[in-house]
């Protein structure tokens, strides 16, 4: 079940607040604790609160610290994007959302307002955020003063754009012409006929009209009278430029009167008309030119029994009138009438029971790299482990160490001469505080003699002498591995400089494999755009036989499950199902049978081709009864040649992040790096090693 919903609009003034308020009321009726989050808010003056957040938190009395309800302001996001730090934006948004998700049963997430010109970037950002939070989306549009075809076309385009990356649960079109409700809903359902909830809400005049307070704020006005009536709605406005006897016949219900501040006749006449049974009620009076009525007039007004807001503004009547015409209605915390109307409108037009059922039963299949990396970090932080990095003279290792220490995610030991490592850190300007790490030179370590003696005892049956043991223990890979064996470290990451064989040999000699495991193998976590796939074995075993291939599949499935990925195993071959013949495909078929015999509950399919394993359409065509075809999360390659080339091809052609190789089958975690690894590769591999250590 999803623990959140993302409300995204596709244009300005869509009436998104109506949907958010209605949803919040619906959710609070279904579950006890509902959180609220806005990833990006508008830029604000110092000390000012975001209106959306203030309204929701105040009306529903939500117990959330204001600073935890948003991640960034608009300008902060644009600055980070311009610096090429878009990933940092998403990471912080995920972190903030996850903190709320832990506290609340459900979180309502409200997207941006589309209040600026760059709508394409804004649409992309909303899709990116909802995708990385793994949330279904409600799309909100508006139909005010639009032809039916224009509304339907824009909604369909938005739906098709969003559904490329996220699930759309509902589409709500606000402010529709009341006469077009039925026709608009029919046309939308004809265009979008995939089960998505379609709702059309008519334009509600009281929600579309700004209040006197909103107009006063937009104009920077000074309230002279009528402070208690600032929430009056202004359904229209007119300028008092003619003589009073002519102007009075133009007054309309809930009109805003606009007149120069020295037109006492218009001001007093409008106020008298407001309390007269023979004229409509007015919403307020705007006094232009920065002019304030003379003292006798103010005294007369003050003595009236009922005074609508009188507001003095700077600027000429023409400019002020033009500005008022462009002011859009908003909903704010003090205007309880609009909030109540919004909730009632939502409940009247939205099938809340059906929408709630869809929310409760929704499960996202999207699992982005950012989500995966966030989950890894949180798991590592829960139980901090000690990792040794033997290659202390490599710049990438030192930079990764700085990043790891800054995140407080692991304790680190770096092997090498302390003076040389400190010199490199200073020379390369690496922000690594050496007081926060252990730096050990193997031969100078107080444990060196003990490690050498231990290695001698473990390997003397292989004709290893004590002197040979000392020479061997001077090697950083052996020393680091012995730290793990003796319990002085929990895991090791190497390979930025050394070969796989150099990294793995010590582990095989004395850490050895887990009980019941005969083979050390490897997987890569392939972080694709919308999912994480496990590829094995792409680094260790050149040409495994059927029994070894089965063991690789079982180990890879276990690794996937340990890292929160449901294992659906595809045993890859050049043939799918029973159609293929030949030694290579028979090996895969036999391996699949071995796995099924040993793990009857494991979801596995083989032999199966790569496209049928990952593409639902092709999978249904080739293996229609398979629960793995089209949904495979663990892909087992028949040999190293195929696996290594495939992972590199996928990585290069799709831009996927490949984390690994992650070694599996050892009693204690030792992981190998590619010699072409990046700082981020080392960082991710250390975190994975720490998590593996938690599971030992």
How would you characterize this protein structure?
The chain is an alpha/beta fold and 696 residues long. It is built from 28 helices and 23 strands. Strands 3-2-4-1-5-6-7 form a seven-stranded parallel β-sheet, sandwiched between helices. Strands 20-19-21-18-17-22 form a six-stranded mixed β-sheet, sandwiched between helices. The protein has a five-stranded mixed β-sheet with strand order 8-12-11-10-9. Helix 16 packs across helix 28. The longest helix has 18 residues. The protein is elongated, with a radius of gyration of 34 Å. Homohexamer. This is Phosphate acetyltransferase.
Number of contiguous helices: 28
So what's the overall shape? Answer: elongated
* Sheet with most strands: 7 strands, parallel
Give me the Rg, rounded.
Answer: 34 Å
**Beta content:** 15-25%
Structural class: alpha/beta
Q: How far apart, in Å, are the first and last alpha carbons?
A: 30 Å
> For the largest beta sheet, what order do the strands appear in spatially?
3-2-4-1-5-6-7
Q: Please provide the count of β strands.
A: 23
Low-confidence stretches: none
Task: Give the % helix.
Answer: 40-55%
| Average of the residue pLDDT scores | 89
Domain Phosphate acetyl/butaryl transferase: 371-690
EC number: 2.3.1.8
Protein name: Phosphate acetyltransferase
Organism: Flavivirga algicola
């Amino acid at each position: 079940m999803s623990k959140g919903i993302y409300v995204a609009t596709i244009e300005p003034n869509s009436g998104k607040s109506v949907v958010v308020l209605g949803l919040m009321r619906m959710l609070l009726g279904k579950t006890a604790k509902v959180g609220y989050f806005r990833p990006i808010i508008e830029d604000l003056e110092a000390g000012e609160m975001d209106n959306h957040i203030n309204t929701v938190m105040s009306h529903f009395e939500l117990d959330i610290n204001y600073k935890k309800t948003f991640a960034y302001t608009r300008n902060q996001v644009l600055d980070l994007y311009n610096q090429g730090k878009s990933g940092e934006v998403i990471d912080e948004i995920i972190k903030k959302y996850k903190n709320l998700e832990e506290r609340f049963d459900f979180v309502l997430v409200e997207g941006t307002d589309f209040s600026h010109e760059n709508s394409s970037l804004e649409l992309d950002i909303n899709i990116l955020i909802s995708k990385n939070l793994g949330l279904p989306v409600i799309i909100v549009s508006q139909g005010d003063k639009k032809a039916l075809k224009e509304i339907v076309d824009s909604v369909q385009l938005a739906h098709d754009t969003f559904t490329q990356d996220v699930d759309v649960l509902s589409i709500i079109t606000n402010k529709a012409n009341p006469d077009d409700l039925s026709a608009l809903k029919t046309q939308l359902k004809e265009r979008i006929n995939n089960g998505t909830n379609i709702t059309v809400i008519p334009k509600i005049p009281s929600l579309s009209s700004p209040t006197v307070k909103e107009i006063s704020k937009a104009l920077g006005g000074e309230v002279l009278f009528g402070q208690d009536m600032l929430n009056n709605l202004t359904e229209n406005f007119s300028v008092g430029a003619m003589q009073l006897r002519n102007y009075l016949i133009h007054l309309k219900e809930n009109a805003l009167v606009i007149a120069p501040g020295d037109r006492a006749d218009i001001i007093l006449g409008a106020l008298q008309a407001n309390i007269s049974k023979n004229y409509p009620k007015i919403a307020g009076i705007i006094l232009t030119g920065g002019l304030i009525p003379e003292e006798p007039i103010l005294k007369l007004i003050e003595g009236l029994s009922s005074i609508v807001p009188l507001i003095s503004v700077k600027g000429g009547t023409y400019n002020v009138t033009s500005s008022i015409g462009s002011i859009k209605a908003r909903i704010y915390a003090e205007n309880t009438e609009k909030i109540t109307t919004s909730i009632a409108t939502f409940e009247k037009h939205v099938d809340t029971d059906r929408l709630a059922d869809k929310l409760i039963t929704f499960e996202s299949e999207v699992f982005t790299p950012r989500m995966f990396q966030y989950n890894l970090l949180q798991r590592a932080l829960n139980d901090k482990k000690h990792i040794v990095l033997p290659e202390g003279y490599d710049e990438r290792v030192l930079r990764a160490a700085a990043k790891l220490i800054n995140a407080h995610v692991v304790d680190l030991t770096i092997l090498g001469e302390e003076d040389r490592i400190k010199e490199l850190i200073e020379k390369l300007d690496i922000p690594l505080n050496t007081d926060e790490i252990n730096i050990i030179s193997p031969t100078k370590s107080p444990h060196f003699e003990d490690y050498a003696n231990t290695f001698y005892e473990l390997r003397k049956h292989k004709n290893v002498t004590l002197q040979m043991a000392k020479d061997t223990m001077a090697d950083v890979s052996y020393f680091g591995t012995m730290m793990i064996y003796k319990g002085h470290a929990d895991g090791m990451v190497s390979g930025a400089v050394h070969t796989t064989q150099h990294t793995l040999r010590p582990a095989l000699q004395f850490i050895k494999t887990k009980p019941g495991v005969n083979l050390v193998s490897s997987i890569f976590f392939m972080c694709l755009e919308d999912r994480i796939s496990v590829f094995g074995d792409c680094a260790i075993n050149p040409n495994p036989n059927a029994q070894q291939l089965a063991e690789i599949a079982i180990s890879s499935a276990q690794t996937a499950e340990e890292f929160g990925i449901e294992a659906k195993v595809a045993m890859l071959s050049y043939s799918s199902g029973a159609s293929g013949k030949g030694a290579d495909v028979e090996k895969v078929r036999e391996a699949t049978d071995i796995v099924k015999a040993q793990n009857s509950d494991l979801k596995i399919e083989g032999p199966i081709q790569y496209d049928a394993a990952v593409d639902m359409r092709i999978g249904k065509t080739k293996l229609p009864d398979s629960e793995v075809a089209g949904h495979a999360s663990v892909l087992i390659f028949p040999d190293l040649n195929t696996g290594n080339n495939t992972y590199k091809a996928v990585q290069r052609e799709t831009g996927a992040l490949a984390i690994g190789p992650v070694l599996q089958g050892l009693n204690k975690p030792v992981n190998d790096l590619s010699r072409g690894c990046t700082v981020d590769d080392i960082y991710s591999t250390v975190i994975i090693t720490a998590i593996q250590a938690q599971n030992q």
